[in-house]
Amino acid sequence: MSKLALITGASSGIGLELAHCFARGGHSCILVARRRERLKQLALDLKNAYGCDAEVLVADLADPAAPQQLYLQVKQRQYNIDVLVNNAGFGNTGRFDRLSLQDELDLMHVNMVAPGQLCRLFLSDFVRRGRGRVLNVASVAGFLPGPLMASYYASKAYVVSLSRALQLEFQGSGVTVSVLCPGPTKTEFFERADMQTTELARGRLMLMDSAAVVAEAGYRGTMKGKPLIIPGLANKFIVLAACLLPSVWSARIVKRINRRHR
What we know:
9 helices, 7-stranded parallel beta sheet
C-alpha cells in the first residue's frame, strides 16, 4: 500500500468521514475500531466509491495493551504508515463522584493514553523516514474547564497540549503534527455520553456541524501541515473567548450547557 492512512475510531462519525476524505484523496486506509461489521462495510464502501484498498483491524483502545498490539500488527504486515489519525474518543456526563470508575478509566485510556502512545510509536518511524503526518482529533473542549464532563474536557486539553508541543519538536524533520478542534458535531457522541437531554444536545446554545464538514476541514488542514485546525467561525470564537475570559466564567457556562434536563 502507498499513501497509507491509519484511522482510529473509523466506524462512525468524524472517523468514518475522515476515512472517506483520505480515500477520496488517494490514500489506502487501515480502519481501526471495536465494531468489525461496521468497519467491513466501510472498507467495502471505500473500495466501491474510490477504488481504495482498506484493511480492517479490530481494537478496543480502552485496553492498555491495544496500542502496542496495533502497532505490532502494522509492523508485521510491513505497512509503512504515511498518516496517523488519532480520532477514537468518547465522553461521560455527570458529577465526577457519581460516574463509573471503570468508564472514567476507559475514557482516559481511549482519549489520552492511546493517542499519546500511538504518537510515540509511529513518530519514531516517521522521523526515521523523514516524512509523515499526524492528525490528533481534540475539541474546543480542550480549551475549557468542563464541569459535568470533567474527564472528557481534561482529556482533550491533553491532546491539544501534546499536539501543539509536538508540532514544534518536529519542525524541520519532514513530519507534521496537526490537531483538529471541532465544536459540537452531529455524531453518536451525544448518545454514548448520555447527553441527549443537555442544553448543548438540545441545540439551545450552539449549532452543530456535520461530521463530513469537520472531517473535510481536518483532512485539508492535515495535508497542508496546519498545526491547529478549528472549523467554523463560531468555534474559533469559542476558543478565543476561552483564552480571554476568566476560567471560572467559562466553567460556569460549560456547567450550564452540560446540565441534563429530565
